[in-house]
User: Fold this.
Amino acid sequence: MAEPYMIDSDINFIKEIGILGAEDLKKCYQCATCSVACPISPDSHPFPRKEMIAASWGLKDRLVGNADIWLCHNCGDCSTHCPREAKPADVLAALRSYAITDYAVPKKLAKMVNDPKKLPVLLGIPVVLFLALGLILKMFGIHWLNFSPGGDEIAHAKFFSTWLVDLIFIPAFIFAVAVFFIGVKRFLSDIHQNALMEGKTDKEKIDPVGFVQALGRVIPTILKHRKFSECTENRERSTAHMMVLYGFIGLFVVTNIFFVTLYVFQIHGPYSQLNPVKWLANVAGVALVIGGLLMVKSRFDKPDQSTTYKDWSLIGLVLALGLTGMLTEMTRLAGAAGLTYFIYFIHLVFVFCLFVYVPYSKLAHLVYRTLAMTYAEYSNRK
Amino acid sequence: MDKKYGAYICTGCGIGDALDIDALKDVAEEEAWPVKTHPFFCSNEGVDIIKRDIEKGINTVIIGACSRRVNFDVFRFDGCLVDRLNLREQVVWSHPRSQFPPLTEDQKDDGVNFDRLQMLAEDYLRMSMAKMEKVKVPEPYKLDEFTSKILVIGGGVTGMSAALDAAKAGYEVTLVEKEAALGGYAKTLRKQLPMKIPYDSLIPPIVDDLIKKVKADSKITLKTKTEVARLAGQPGDFTVTFKTPGEKIEFDVPYPLPEEMKVDENGKELDQEVLVEKYKEYNKGRVDILTFDPKGEKFGAVVLAAGWRPYKPAAGEFAHLGYGEIADVVSNHQFEQMAASGKLTRPSDGKEAKSVVFVQSPGLGNDQDFEYGGSVLSMVALKHAKYVREYFPEDGKSYIFYQHMRTPGLLENFYKTIQQDPGIFMTKGEVIKVAQNGDGLVIEADNTLLGEKIQVKADLVVLAMGMVPKTVDEPIVNMAYRQGPSFRDIDLFNGYVDSNFICFPYETQRTGIYAAGPIRRTMTIEESLEDATGAALKAIQSLECSEKGKAVHPRSGDVTFPDFFFQRCTQCKRCTQECPFGALDDDEKGTPKPNPTRCRRCGTCMGACPERIIAFADYSPDSVGSMVKSVKVPSSDDYEEPPMRILGLVCENDAYPALDIAGLNRLSYSADVRFIPVRCLGSMNVIWIKDALSQGMDGVFLLGCKHGDDYQCHFMKGSELAEIRVKKIGDALTSLALEEERVAMFQVAIDEYDKLPGIINKFVEEIEAIGPNPFKGF
Assistant:
């Protein structure tokens, strides 16, 4: 018999996740309707019933490092069927939100990302960074920032040199990867410990090869949105999510291709609209905007579901990225030089936000959910 | 009264179609009963026919129509004796002609064939006539002295509320309280459970308001530091002796001899004189119950609201929970006192008790709550959990481990608000162990909703001890009754006073004394208030009925009462002992002294009396015996294969209605059974069984209420007593060379009407298998 589990109730934890959208969690009376209603909960140790009592008892240690909160896709079937309106879906969403902050470093930045009052500061950082770096370089005779780009052809690189852009974005990207790396390392260890404690795994240790193989099996599930489509409530959300996901993937591919084109083949943009890569870029951009708008609609259609600042800020970022990107291109094609350079600048600010703030925002689910699903696959969670 | 007979046979509702009404009329006319028929006797026209005859002098009426359970107000003729001959439900509706065909012209009087249905109807008519010849118009019993004052025992919330309610209804009330001050347990509370919509938060105790109202009420006489030494007499005329608690006086109630003192060393019952001597010695210094205190106060009815006390565990009873061994393990009662005192600290070292674990059940592999628990203790735990949060809003933690969380009705809202508190944690689960852990405690629990064995650190552990009714410790009412000063304990209700008639709250097994509040079962203050009103109204009802000589529940309004023919009494004391209501007090010789207003008219005494000297005006060993004897028992002289004749003695409370419902549903059963309703199977006198068998009937069965743990007998023990009597009769049957199986008893609930045909037909088949009664035809 295992050692008894020592309860350590954290009242503040309950209050904090309450602010993150789980304010009704205490209404739960443990009937387990949620676990039965959930279409994707496993048969053994099903969620979210156990998460509900752990949360109402303030057992932070059993929740933050619990992979199960990430297996949930927030479809809301549980909340619809809950006889007490305890909203298990919102509770798990709040727990995920809490977990993202918990695994992120530095904590201070994480707190800022989740505080609406800090939004101007966060947006101000890239603005200042771009301008300051450009101006400093100018002092050394490097004119990568040019406030009066001339010439017939509008090329955004004339305003912000790609060197300047990448001088900032490549470290930003590496920063995000590093922050994720620190978080993920702890996360994997925690979810494994939790799985061992709760008897949800058949593996003693995480074997890297087996884990990567499991990841290979999980990726098609993610790409096909198989888990999403098992939901009854909110099924239309699957389309929106798919559009945004593929939008991002498409744009990521485009960025990489042009990165290689620029630095390896030394071919500068703007590229022809007939270029198939450009087609992909346009389609992906449109998908991002439409997906984002659909997400806004579905949030408004579901007033029962709690929508927090974290949700809105991510949808806002998606729309901002898509719209500023598309507008930059359209104003450029329209020949509105001043406008297009300005919008491009804004676009760059949002791209910076995407890179640097991703480990602290809801978008971090990209990493954590993928890893949790991979772990579940790896450990044969059924 | 000179009886003038009149029989009225209704031919409606299918009766006329199924029966040969002329033949039926002949049966009555043979006995000189004039008969009238009508197709619709319950119509105005039909009733007028009867009324006109009554005006002309008819005073003994048989109405052959529907069951007496319907149209009872239509066929009520005051001053007349009326019998309702149940031709509809129990004859034609339950015996369709398709199954019980009439005779063809050839078959009539052929010595082979007979019409079972016609025979059934004719027998019932004969039985009715036989009964009407025997019964008398009852005269209600009137008390010589009557008082309408109400005594309320207990000055807590329930008692005060009952007193106020009775006073509001216009009655003089005396409220006695043992302690110096009013208020009872409620006076010691910090806060109280919600009592009003939306039932979601604790309220200040209401007890002070009640105390003010009681003191201001001119109809209420208050006696504090007072208890009842004895209560003698009967409803409407109780004589009560009060005393100061602890005082010893000659009117302290005497106790009956314990069973072990009633027998000699060989286990043989002692002689009456010796018993009386021993009784006097046993109760030295106290006068016998039959001597009334000349200085006693008179009361008409009593409300008992003595309340409860916290459960006191025996040493080591909850050792696994640390109770009695660890200073910081306390009872919910102690916790309430701590919280009310203004300090929530650990008894061991006075440190603030910020983490408190509430244990709702003792565990040890059993999911029962602590004894004398109930929903109240769930809600008290919720209240106490809230106290911790009120004392320490930032970091106070309350854990509740329960097996049952019961919050009836709208108090669910209270549960919901308590549940919303972030510092209150609840789980179903079994607490295995409470142990000292450094200067704090650690609680181990298993089978919780958290999935595995868990441990919780605590400053204080609170056990949900039950609310023990005060009557467990002492009789309180101290009735000067021969059966003893306390309520008769039928070993079913853990010492609670209520007779727990499922359908009849407040009733005790002592007429005129009504229980209210936690003396009856654990209850909240809100429930106690409602209970108090109920008991006060019951007391008032009892007063009004006693004055008019009417029975109270469950034979409400019955004006008959048992009449004793004392010349033939053998002083066997069976009636005194068996009366479920302790209505009889015997004297030194053992002669019963009736107290008619204590009586509920069940007839248990009549059934018990071996000399058959107890009778009611309209119900007696003779009246029923005559009915039995009037059944025509066909023998082989009449038919080649005569039908069986079986007597069914049927409890009129549940079994008889069930038979009616069976008829209403057109369920059919044997037509060879003759039913006689009895007031209670307890009133069944074995002479009726003997009468039936000696006149050639082939079998007898009793149909009564369920007994045992979930008894449904309206008089508690009636069906059980009948079963004992039936078992005893077995030997007598054997000595007559009759099979024991000819007499049986069946238990049915009122809703088991669908089982009746099966029960009846099976018994008839068994009797047919045994064969006809050898006494037939003698």
User: Anything to note?
Assistant: Strands of chain A lie at 5-6.
